[in-house]
């Protein structure tokens, strides 16, 4: 799962009201096909819009800035084409976590809450084989952009030992450690 974040992970709502995580999940057996599809898409964007193949496609920057001398209507078309291309792929799933920071107590851990939820959702996907294609008994790894690596490593290691899951009925919780995410989160420069 490759994860990117949006918004400020602190309790300060003067910058953003929300902290969001989006995880793109692809089974390892589909990885090379996904990369080939994305490279073909990038070559098409290069030939049609003159978008450099290695240019990052960040929605906010592409909408706000005159990126690469490409007119705004073409930049918006690039974003639409990118979303359309991802929607056509049946080998990926997307997991999102949105934390509404408004009206949270000052000691609420926005960052930890969001990441714990995302890690748990990925663990559930791995445990129950909820991949497109239904791959069972899978294990996974999390790739993040360069973001708070030590905090994420600490959080993942704690969850692999102590991960309290509330009982559905009757209160209390069960300790169900994270077992399918096999490594500390790996930071990559996006």
Descriptive overview:
With 190 residues, the chain is of the alpha/beta class. It contains five helices and seven strands. The strands form two sheets. It has a five-stranded mixed β-sheet, with helices on one face. Helix 1 packs antiparallel against helix 3. The longest helix is centred in the first third of the chain and has 19 residues. The protein is globular and about 60 Å long. The model has no long low-confidence stretch (mean pLDDT 91).
Largest sheet: 5 strands, mixed
Mean pLDDT: 91
Instruction: List the total number of helices.
Output: 5
Strand order, largest beta sheet:
3-2-1-4-7
Roughly how many Å is the radius of gyration?
Answer: 19 Å
Low-confidence stretches: none
Distance between the termini: 14 Å
Give the total of beta strands: 7
How big a fraction of the residues is strand?
15-25%
The coarse overall form would be: globular
Q: Which structural category fits the helices and strands?
A: alpha/beta
Q: What's the SSE pattern?
A: EEHHHEHEHEEE
Helix content: 25-40%
